[in-house]
Please model this.
Amino acid sequence: MSFTRKDLLGIEELSAGEIQSLLVAAVSFKEIIERNVKKVPTLRGKTIINLFLEPSTRTRISFELAGKYLSADVINISAGGSSVSKGESLLDTAKTLEAMKADYLVVRTPFAGAPLYLAKMVKSAVINAGDGAHEHPTQALLDLFTIQEKFQQIRSLKVAIIGDISHSRVARSNIWGLLKLGAEVTLIAPPTLLPIDIEKMGVKVRFKIDDELKKADLVYVLRLQRERQRGGLLPGLREYARLYGINSSRISKKAMVMHPGPLNQGIEIDDELAYGPRSLVTDQVTNGLAVRMAVLYLLVGKK
Amino acid sequence: MATKKMLAMDSSEIKRALRRIASEIIEKNNGTNELAIVGMVTKGVFLGNRLVKEINCLEDVAIPMGVLDTTLYRDDVNSKNFRPRVEQTEINFDINGKKIILVDDVIYTGRTVRAALDALMDFGRPQCIQLAVMIDRGHRELPISADYLGKLIETRKDEQVLVAVKEIEKEDMVYIVKDKKKSVKDGK
Amino acid sequence: MNLLIKNGDLVNPGKPKLNGKLDLLVKQGKIAKIGENLKAGKGCQVIDATRQYVFPGLVDLHVHLREPGHEYKEDIASGTKAAARGGFTTINCMPNTEPPIDNRSVVEFVREVAKASGVIRVVTTACITKGRAGKELVEMADLYEAGVRTLSDDGDMVEDAHLMRRALEYAGMFPLTIISHAEVAGLSRGGDMNEGFVSTKLGLKGIPAAAEEIAVARDIRLAELAKARLHLAHLSTTGSIELLRTAQKRGLPITGEVTPHHFTLTDEETVGYDTSTKVNPPLRERQDVLACVRGIEDGTISCIATDHAPHAGFEKEREYSRAPFGISGLETAVSLAFTELHLKHKIPLATIIAALTINPARILALDIGTLAENGPASLTIFDPNLKWRVEPSAFLSKGKSTPFAGRELTGRVSSTIYNGRLVYQFD
Model:
């Protein structure tokens, strides 16, 4: 069990063993973030560039803190102020960043596949922090970590993922990760929010909330982008909330709930559940730090 | 096997050394007040546990014991010594004002102890830190020395010192291990 | 200059008796004689074509030459050189230039530039609608007089079904053949690749097969209503080819083409997000590739066209969703047809060469694509034994993007002769 890659681009390409070694490492880092002095000198003298070409606060802050807790120097480049938004090509960006000799490049982009392109172009370790509707591997790792922490074991766990699967990189990464670690995954969404042939990944698909949801040990609620009702994907948010909104009466009494945040309260999940004792939402945020520290640590010096 | 093992300490020698170190600790610190032991992953943890027991036999007090992994404090994180596994650090007591006895099996260059000192400082401000090791094999690269020592053994750099413990190797022994191929290369 | 091509194996569609081991004597740009054991006269250059095939000069029905307007992607000089390297002696360029080829003066401009800087023959398709805007018909009579024989808004479909009907009806009287770019924009908009399991995995927006098939069905029905000829460009799906097959069975004068990339590659190529796999219509699935092959085999698809659509390197070196559709196809087409269709799928060479010569020539209403005495000496010599690896940097086209980079192909053009002149020779 080890992790010897240069980059972390997606969960699809990882083996179950690689995922487990990342999760095991994260346990030690979680201990560090619970200390009074949340800082170790491990990555002293290393530079992390957070290249965020799409608005994101949570993931960026999480990577920034993870880097700082490991004593790395962290620089943020975001879409608004960068030349990238002024039409600079990805190739140019890659060459410039390469010349800066950053050790890590954390990339968030609206374009699926862009981190892979950068990884081929630069020597830095590239970490995909979300690319279009493709993957968001560190989100899946922190979710898997949270699930393992709560349920001890992922094998045979019944997980329902509900919401906009089509546009969700979180869903894709989690489906790969959960299946690789042996969970049983059911997707619940209207046909308009399910990408074609998704069942070929090895998941069950349901269009409506039914007994499958009641059987789930864990209900993973996805964020609904409010603009989805344009483009004919949904008649409206009200109908969505009525058909797919999660509250405690719709799920098993023992089930836990997760959400990648930020929440649309009252649409995809009700407040009481989202902030109640069965919610793992805040654990997800804390574990995100531990997992990202583990990822940074395990990619160090892989050239 | 291409290696040669030479016995350096047997189990009774180890036991006697631990007992002696335990009493030296009590003597030097005027008892067990504010005393705590922190064992360094991996072998230092087992030796630390034994010291806790020995002190308990002598003074009838249970002093707190912690576990410290220095991986994240090492100065060679980039090199081929990179350790992908990070063990858990567990120090479940407040180290502020404590007299910490840091325990490891072997002291060599001193770099691991340096890392351990940094790590301990991140947990708080102990009254003092003292170092107990079973073997000092020389070749120090930093100005660090042990306060309590089992045995001083002169070694060559191409040799290794193995402190075997019952919990892992099923026996308490100290060996000097020599790679035979290397010896041949050296003209022996 | 006189030229004798000796010992070649002639594959000559349309002239069943002039096939097999025959020599060709070329004088003053024309074929003076085809026969056995011809002798070279004084000062006659001899090309030894032993163990090689001799084809009529290849005809490509569907090429984007980018001039005028986008000369940084390709121009007529570079595009025709690339075509000659690919064995083509006549290429038909699509009118989505800047300005678009929607009136006589642009047609004449292209012809003049081709005469001055092109190494082979260039003919043009003109737009169906002014400015390719899908609103008003072009002046067809004027274009016909200027030599245009085909019309297309290629790149976009004529969305207004009524306008398409009138275009088909009106074009029929000259006659001009309408070439349909079959793509319902409402279904394909924003899409990057075929819609299927691969697009789902990659998180890229898909273009469903239905976007093409609905358009194909509409245009077949409109052509029938208008009693017009119709040619369907770059078909890519099982359903489209089946619709064409059914229409032909009903006796409708409708033809279709496929590209080498559609009869060779599937959407699995897109894994890795290499933008050289981004083409429109997109690479489809295994069964669609096989449908393209079957279509060529049974004659439903009568033409192989490259849809050569070159772009500058910096345009393709981008995120997949931001890169333009299109690849450089001229310099790999005939080798792909030989390797994939003939060697792998065992389609007779005569069928393949007809789809690259006489069949597209007929759609262009050109009396070319076959070799005969006193006919023009445009021909392609092809070495079927040569194995080579596709090296984009060696392309003569300005567009270097190809999904076949590094692929080993069997058979390669060794010489291209246009009107008696050697315009390409492999060395």
About this structure: Residues 16-33 of chain A form the longest helix (18 residues). The mean pLDDT of chain A is 91. Residues 105 and 154 of chain A are 30 Å apart (CA to CA).
